[in-house]
User: What shape does this take?
Amino acid sequence: PVDESWPTDGIPTATYSIHKAANEAAMDAFEVDHRAVTVTRLRPGLIFQRDAAAEIRGLFLGHLVPMSIVRWIRWLVLPLPYPFVFQAVHADDVADAYWRAVDRRAAGAFNIAATPVLNPPRLARAFGMLGAVRIPLRLLRGIVTLTWRLRLQPTDAGWIDIAAGVPIMRTDRARSVLGWEARHTSEEALRALVAGFADGANVPGSGPLRG
Assistant: This one.
């Protein structure tokens, strides 16, 4: 696990990561030019909640995949490479971290993530599947790239590179400076999202985000 001093250069094959790195660079420049301004950055893991199910389905799976798919896959195994690990956090806990940062006028970067780290076996359990089976990372990248180029789903392989390449974040600074602790585990946050998939949950009035 790494702390907030870890370089924020991003992963060059992942557009989302490149954009985040550009944001960090812009904040660095602003901080140098505006010393009197408190500049705070929160770096959360993937943010989950039940009501975001339709939006997340649209971003990562596309509208060709029905939200009720989680009811059909319970008798399947989850094929993923075992370097595929990432951190998650519930939206309520992220909101609490933002409030604490504002209330305390806390400057600097804060890693925000819940435990445990999500890996293929834990992902399979959260989706109610039979288990996880290991496949080569290159195979998964190839499948994702092919289906993306065919416009069958909206996620390019950069997201696979993020899940397989980002470091695990330490959250010591958020606890010591903000007094922050995640009230939900990462598995609870993911299970809430999965329940939202099954129920077709959506933020009321979200317009284009609806499934």
Observations:
- The beta strands are 40-44, 46-48, 77-80, 88-90, 108-112, 131-134.
- The mean pLDDT is 91.
